[in-house]
Amino acid sequence: KAGVTQTPRYLIKTRGQQVTLSCSPISGHRSVSWYQQTPGQGLQFLFEYFSETQRNKGNFPGRFSGRQFSNSRSEMNVSTLELGDSALYLCASSWTSNTEAFFGQGTRLTVV
Amino acid sequence: QKEVEQDPGPLSVPEGAIVSLNCTYSNSAFQYFMWYRQYSRKGPELLMYTYSSGNKEDGRFTAQVDKSSKYISLFIRDSQPSDSATYLCAMSSNTNAGKSTFGDGTTLTVKP
């Protein structure tokens, strides 16, 4: 059974640019959550999608957005990148909320 | 004050030792408790998932949850060098769809 796949694995972007990250969940999983991981703040919840609907959102500015497609694949977008957006972005998939959640390997974003 | 506090470590033990990792929390709505293991530059790997209070054992790993004390633990028996990683506790509730709140992690080194 394939795990959670995140692409790309690494990204380098310039301040002010935008970026789109992709997450393919485990087959059959309908919930996808996104997290930002930094050394100073740890793992911080960004948002969660279930059946193409955003059900929950963390405390991040509106520059962070996401969507989910009918096949449960999800994307997150960060516009007007700032240096502080440099982080490991992780997605986790689960069958539904509060069932076991499995993480992908993450996308490491560096903003220069 | 953070909702989830994790013993910061780092922790260094000899091979074969019993390791105890601990977290406390303040939100009484948390009902689902997880432990993840994260190797450097990888995504978190789910080790244990428990609901409400009690113990759960899986091989060398035992998770304990004491909701009355708002305290959870992970015990690793017969620790191996391959257990060297950062361990993250995480918790979620029915009232916050798809969101897990994480501790900051404890870095464990098992010396041969």
Description:
The complex is a heterodimer of chains A (about 110) and B (about 110). Chain A has about 110 residues and is mostly beta strands. Helices cover about 0% and strands about 55% of the residues of chain A. Chain A contains no helices and 11 strands. In chain A, strands 2, 4, 5, 6, 9, 10 and 11 form a 7-stranded mixed beta sheet that branches. In chain A, strands 1-3-8-7 form a 4-stranded antiparallel beta sheet, with no helix packed on it. Chain A is globular and about 35 Å long. Chain B is mainly β. In chain B, strands 2, 4, 5, 9, 10 and 11 form a 6-stranded mixed beta sheet that branches. In chain B, strands 1-3-8-7-6 form a 5-stranded antiparallel beta sheet, with no helix packed on it. The termini of chain B are far apart. Classes of the chains: A mainly beta (about 110), B mainly beta (about 110). The interface between A and B is medium-sized, with 27 and 26 residues.
In short:
Chain A is mainly β and 112 residues long.
